[in-house]
Specification:
Elements lengths: L1 E6 L2 E4 L4 E9 L6 E7 L6 E7 L5 E3 L7 E6 L4 E6 L8 E8 L3 H5 L16 E2 L3 E6 L1
Parallel strand pairs: 2-11
Antiparallel strand pairs: 1-3, 3-8, 4-5, 4-9, 5-6, 7-8, 9-10, 9-11
Length: about 140
């Protein structure tokens, strides 16, 4: 089991920036697929950004492309989400998620999927960190 701890959330004005961190501990070999999801009040959880360690591809939701960047520090078992030009619609609780996927499952779309809410594809979740953007 992998434990995930997020940090870095806060309150900013429109156009501001934040960097979220997610540090994994425990059996981190089970975390070769990692990413960020968010959920605003009254909305379903949605995938924001993610990656599979065996691939150079990165997933970004259309709403954050060009503004958010996901990166990782393998030595520190930490995943970052750099969020620039934040908008009020980015206000949400942000969650880090991790799971283990074979390369074939990933390539064939059977795992490590960020285009849905994440429950069926990710076993490990952090407690969440709140991001609030005011206009």
């Amino acid at each position: 089991q992998v434990q995930l701890v997020e940090s870095g959330g806060g309150s900013v004005q429109t156009g501001g920036s934040l960097r979220l961190s997610c540090t994994a501990s425990g059996y981190t070999y089970d975390a070769n697929c990692m990413g960020w999801f968010r959920q605003a009040p009254g909305n379903e959880r949605e995938g924001v950004a993610g990656f599979y360690l065996g691939s150079s591809r990165r997933y970004y939701a259309d709403s954050v492309k060009g503004r958010f960047t996901i990166s990782q520090d393998n030595a520190e078992n930490t995943v970052y989400l750099q969020m620039n030009n934040l908008q009020p619609e980015d206000t949400a609780m942000y969650y880090c998620a991790a799971d283990f996927s074979s390369y074939s499952d990933y390539e064939e779309g059977r795992s490590c999927v960020f285009t849905r809410g994440g429950d069926e594809y990710f076993a490990s979740w952090g407690q969440g960190t709140q991001v609030t953007v005011s206009s």
